[in-house]
Design brief:
single chain, 577 residues, alpha+beta, DNA ligase i, domain 1, OB fold (Dihydrolipoamide Acetyltransferase, E2P), 3 domains, 8-stranded mixed beta sheet, binds adenosine-5'-triphosphate
């Protein structure tokens, strides 16, 4: 298979307005892919060279791509720049200036290995090397391929294929229907590597997929918590539970493999560089291999004060991490051990896994077990919740003592309880920006007015609209949104978006914002939870509380299922005194 073959499918998928069509087209591409090719193809169609959790990037900025296009086409950089100003998309510039003919196009394996060479080059002379290798690849490609290659390099592939869509397409390609999606998804929850799954599926079939195991070095998709309206509902539903503080920090999954320690974020990115203290502390633990799950947070043991998410997260900026480590050291409250010395512990009941933590952490002052109490009384649970809130924590997470760790699941094994404000939604939701309307009045100076926002439908791997947001941001916030939105504009509604409204500008679903609203109401304007001709759900009085983008991928946004549950709970809360 050539890069041009894949590019032709990318073109077709880009032009697709329906998600079913997207699955079918991708399945068709897969049926033409050999076992040797399927792994690189799977990464490339998502604009990657390796799985998301491997920190391998091409490291090509716009300037370098422009220089490469100039070199490949033999045109002056100024001309490339001028065309870029007119066309607004370097992919289109590369397409227009391409001199290659399809007959010469490299194989997918060849293109992938040349791109890996670009990613691997670092240090002195690397800019030159990247430019030369990229230019020679561009030179060998036809116009359409050049367009997609450039977009891949800049992380601007237009498709936005969600993981479930890829898994469903694999199922369709092999079986003609979506029936294998659940077992593929289960393997994905254990390994987080779509390329590995595709390759195993192609070479060893369903048996191979079932045999893919949790292992150190590959993040496990995190278990997540459900919501219930109050402590009474928790005890009624779960009976005896363990209760832990809900720390408002950053979820960390720590993998130790001998002296090699890696820390993965909630959305499966390698954040080892940011968590130097955790890496150092994990290295000192005596077990050879470990996977730990916990929450990292700035904590001052003397004043017993916790530092809130925003401040902890400011470290993401990567520079100044050492200073930050000195002035605001991070600790991690470890609440789970998932793997130890080659053994997968996830099937064990939580009580047994938790009991190992003391021994595993061996008195480390940086990695400490999250404290826990047990109760079967709603009164006691209420008291613990209030105690934790008064200490500046978000609330509590309640867990079933007998539950296995279910990778990637949001179910009642874990329930989060936060501060409640009677009559209002007691929790924020995470929404994906899908479009915007040109503003009126003051906001025209920022270039946009109300934002169209949506939730994620995990079952169908699509984004449904739920509200328009016009408030909650400072002027600087609106400006920032505008800048980010600018890069995400697309001409038509993306295939994975389901909407009855047409905003002035559509956006590629990427930016996640945290939103507080007064209420969820049924209505006819939005598609969230809409089945057939029935109503959908909408948010009343939404306002943006914060940007969650670095922490969450669009697929990590609040789901339709959660909205439906929150709507039902809201009803229950209202009738209670
Ligand atoms: P939120 O925005 O409320 O943090 P979320 O969508 O990030 O929610 P949830 O599943 O709703 O994730 O809530 C669980 C999150 O709470 C975990 O991802 C973790 O980051 C955090 N957390 C804090 N303390 C704990 C704890 N003791 N046990 C489990 N998770 C905890």
């Amino acid at each position: 298979m050539t890069f041009a073959d894949v590019a032709a499918y990318l073109d077709r998928m880009e032009g697709t307005r329906s998600r079913n069509e997207l699955v079918k087209t991708l399945a068709e591409l897969y049926t033409r892919t050999s076992p040797d090719e399927i792994q690189p193809v799977t990464y490339l169609i998502q604009g990657r060279l390796v799985p998301f959790f491997e920190p391998v990037e091409m490291g090509m900025g716009e300037k370098l791509v422009m220089a490469s296009i100039a070199q490949a086409s033999g045109r002056p950089v100024a001309e490339v720049n001028e065309l870029f100003n007119t066309l607004g998309d370097l992919g289109l510039v590369a397409e227009k200036l391409s001199t290659g003919s399809p007959a010469k196009t490299p194989s997918i394996a060849d293109a992938h290995s040349r791109l890996m060479e670009i990613a691997a080059s670092a240090g002195p002379g690397s800019v030159e090397k990247k430019r030369t290798v990229f230019a020679s690849l561009l030179h060998d490609l036809d116009a359409r391929s050049a367009k997609h290659l450039v977009r891949m390099a800049l992380g601007r592939l237009r498709l936005g294929l969600g993981d479930p869509t890829v898994l469903e397409a694999l199922s369709f390609a092999k079986k003609g229907d979506r029936s294998l999606r659940p077992s593929l998804e289960a393997a994905y929850n254990r390994t987080s590597d779509l390329g590995l799954i595709a390759k195993t599926f192609w070479t060893e079939g369903e048996k191979g997929i079932a045999a893919l195991k949790i292992t150190v070095g590959r993040p496990i998709r995190p278990q997540l918590a459900e919501r219930l309206p109050n402590p009474e509902a928790v005890i009624n539903k779960l009976g005896a539970v363990v209760v832990q503080p809900k720390y408002d920090g950053i979820r960390v999954q720590i993998h130790k493999n001998g002296a090699n320690v890696r820390v993965f974020s909630r959305n499966l990115e390698d954040f080892s560089l940011m968590f130097v203290e955790l890496v150092a502390a994990a290295k000192k633990l005596k077990d050879r291999t470990l996977i730990l799950d916990g929450e990292a947070i700035g904590y001052n043991p003397e004043s017993e004060e916790y530092v809130m998410f925003q401040q902890t997260a400011s470290r993401r900026r990567q520079h100044g991490i050492e200073e930050a480590a000195a002035s605001l050291p991070l600790v991690a409250f470890v609440f789970d051990v998932l793997y130890r010395n080659g053994k997968d512990l996830t099937p064990l009941p939580y009580g047994e896994r938790y009991a190992l933590l003391g021994e595993v952490l061996g008195g480390s002052t940086v990695l400490t077990p999250a404290p826990l109490t047990t109760t079967s009384s709603a009164e006691e649970l209420t008291k613990t919740l209030l105690d934790n809130i008064s200490k500046g924590l978000e609330g509590v997470v309640v867990k079933r003592m007998d539950s296995p760790y279910q990778a990637g699941a949001r179910n009642f094994n874990w329930v989060k309880l936060k501060r409640t404000t009677s009559g209002q939604l007691n929790d924020t939701v995470d929404l994906v920006l899908l479009g915007y309307y040109f503003g009126k009045g003051k906001r025209t100076s920022f270039g946009l007015g109300a934002l169209l926002a949506g939730v994620y439908d995990a079952e169908h791997d699509r984004f449904d609209t739920i509200t328009k947001i016009g408030t909650g941001l400072s002027d600087a916030g609106w400006r920032e949104i505008h800048q980010r939105a600018d890069k995400l504009q697309v001409k038509e509604k993306p295939a994975r978006v389901r909407s009855l409204l047409t905003p002035d500008v559509w956006l590629k679903p990427e930016v996640v914002v945290e939103v507080l609203a007064d209420e969820i109401t049924p209505g006819t304007n939005h598609t969230a939870g809409k089945v057939g001709d029935g109503p959908g759900y909408a948010l009343r009085f939404p306002r943006i509380v914060s940007f969650r983008a670095a922490d969450k991928r669009p697929e990590d946004a609040t789901t339709v299922k959660e909205i439906v549950e929150m709507f039902q709970q809201q009803g229950r809360r209202k009738v209670s005194p």
